[in-house]
Write a structure and sequence with these properties.
Elements (H helix, E strand, L loop, with lengths): L1 H28 L25 H12 L2 E6 L2 E6 L2 H10 L11 H6 L13 H15 L1 H6 L1 H20 L4 E2 H18 L9 H18 L3 H4 L11 H25 L10 H7 L11 H32 L1 H14 L15 H13 L9 E2 L4 E3 L2 E3 L4 E4 L1 H5 L46 H18 E4 L11 E2 L5 E2 L4 E6 L9
Parallel strand pairs: 2-7
Antiparallel strand pairs: 1-2, 3-11, 4-7, 5-6, 8-11, 9-10
Protein name: flavonoid 3',5'-hydroxylase
Family: Belongs to the cytochrome P450 family.
Cofactor: heme
Length: about 500
């Protein structure tokens, strides 16, 4: 009897094992989860050749065919692209924590001290400390109020320089003036001094270095997507990054040494770098290193100058194409401010049309056309599609700003749209996904507040202080784009300006 029972138990166990094995085999053969639609691409290199020289434009065209959430195989990597406000909200709000890290890339390695900065660092204690210090002492609301006088001084200095150029009858090279002023603003806050005492070859070289950094860091580098051939540097991008990094490292090292040599002069009046040095404790005795601090300064000087200046340059260019906008802006400013003094930051809330011009420029010409890439830490699902772990995320901010389902006549530059009830409440600070020039979520640009203040105040000052026109002989303005982390004008804007305020308004 016991033998019969044992045999039946053994047979039952065997049958259970066979059935379980069969079920597991069927499960392993079931169809893979559905990925978002997207182009097939090429063998090995995938969709990389489809991006061309203007990836934001190419991806926007693809999205019209494949939809708001699009999947691309990029070499050995997965990439998903969000091209509408709802798709961006799904990734940057609903799934924000899952997409809080950056994927490894050549820019982080060769430009940002191997991701030791705030922009490319992993989401964690070091990133949080760098972000906290930057917000408390430079980029947050209270900090921005504290250095309002610095902005006023540097804008005044820039306006005087423009007046001198106008007296000679020469055109102003707008991006050079803007970079010079903004670098000195940031220098005064970080280092207690202007970093460029005189406009000249040194400041022009800095501008060129910033543009080169933003351009090269925005490239789709083959080595990032096929790591096994990264050592070949087929596009020459990484070699250029290494040379540029050496230039920036020499400049930043010099700044830090000069800052240390003048410590006694700042006794009782610490600047941003003093505060960072004094509050560099992480946890359990771990501290921010000199490399971390150099990398942070690189972030602040490059992103702080190039992104805001590009928005202002595009806005002026658009208005030169449509003088009626200048006329309406001048009428508003003359009514609110008059012509006997300069614009002050406290005037801006009373200038809704100026604010509308700024928003319209951020919509049509976002400083960052494609957000800095993020990467998923675990699998997830969006709009019914499966997104694997390790998938890179790119949000096409440029495409969102030109989405005809969101914006009426999106290719027109029409500031008045932001005075209408439909769009008037839309704000660029990351909560309204129709307009996210600085990104959104926990990895939103740390300088969002500063960027908005600089754009509104500096653009407003340039509009209020001068009449603008194109140089004689320039029939139509070149409005071509140059792709990079920041969306530059392919041809820098040069324009004639003439003072429109009382002479006393331009005095220091």
């Amino acid at each position: 009897m016991n033998k019969i029972l044992f045999r039946e138990i053994a047979i039952a166990a065997f049958l259970f094992f066979v059935v379980r094995l069969f079920v597991n085999t069927l499960s392993s053969r079931k169809r893979p989860r559905k990925l978002p639609p997207g182009p097939k691409g090429w063998p090995i290199i995938g969709a990389l050749p489809l991006l061309g020289s203007m990836p934001h434009v190419a991806l926007a065209k693809m999205a019209k065919k494949y939809g708001p959430v699009m999947y691309l195989k990029m070499g050995t990597c997965n990439m998903v692209v969000a091209s509408t406000p709802n798709a961006a909200r799904a990734f940057l709000k609903t799934l924000d924590i899952n997409f809080s890290n950056r994927p490894p890339n050549a820019g982080a390695t060769h430009l940002a001290y191997n991701a030791q900065d705030m922009v490319f660092a992993d989401y964690g204690p070091r990133w949080k400390l760098l972000r906290k210090l930057s917000n408390l002492h430079m980029l947050g609301g209270k900090a921005l109020e504290d250095w309002a006088r610095v902005r006023e001084f540097e804008v005044g200095h820039m306006l005087q320089a423009m007046c001198e150029v106008s007296k000679r009858g020469e055109p102003v090279v707008v991006p050079e003036m803007l970079t010079y002023a903004m670098a000195n603003m940031i220098g005064q806050v970080i280092l207690s001094r202007r970093v460029f005492v005189m406009k000249g070859s040194e400041s022009n070289e800095f501008k060129d270095m910033v543009v080169e950094l933003m351009t090269s860091a925005g490239f789709f580098n083959i080595g990032d997507f096929i790591p096994s051939i990264a050592w070949m540097d087929l596009q020459g991008i990484e070699g250029g990054m290494k040379k540029l990094h050496k230039k920036f490292d020499v400049l930043i090292t010099k700044m830090i040494k000069q800052h240390a040599a003048t410590a006694r002069e700042r006794k009782g009046k610490p600047d941003f770098l003093d505060v960072v040095m004094a509050n560099s404790e992480l946890s359990e005795g771990e501290r921010l290193t000199v490399i971390n601090i150099k990398a942070l300064l690189l972030n602040l000087f490059t992103a702080g100058t190039d992104t805001s200046s590009s928005i202002i340059e595009w806005a002026l260019a658009e208005m030169l194409m449509n003088p009626k906008i200048f006329k309406r802006a001048h009428e508003e400013m003359d009514r609110v401010i008059g012509r006997n003094r300069r614009l002050q930051e406290s005037d801006i809330p009373k200038l809704p049309y100026l604010q509308a011009i700024c928003k319209e420029s951020m919509r049509k010409h976002p400083s960052t056309p494609l957000n800095l890439p993020r990467v998923s830490t675990k699998p997830c699902e969006v709009n019914g599609y499966y997104i694997p772990k390790g998938t890179r995320l790119s949000v096409n901010i440029w495409a969102i700003g030109r989405d005809p389902d969101v914006w009426e006549n999106p290719l027109d530059f029409t500031p008045e749209r932001f005075l209408d009830e439909r769009y008037s409440k839309i704000d660029p600070r990351g909560n309204d996904f129709e307009l996210i020039p600085f990104g959104a979520g926990r990895r939103i640009c740390a300088g969002t507040r500063m960027g908005i203040v600089l754009v509104e105040y500096i653009l407003g000052s340039l509009l209020h202080s001068f009449e603008w026109k194109l140089p004689s002989g320039v029939g139509e303005l070149n409005m071509d784009e140059a792709f990079g982390l920041a969306l530059q004008k392919a041809v820098p804007l040069s324009a004639l300006c003439s003072p429109r305020l009382s002479p006393s308004a331009y005095a220091s």
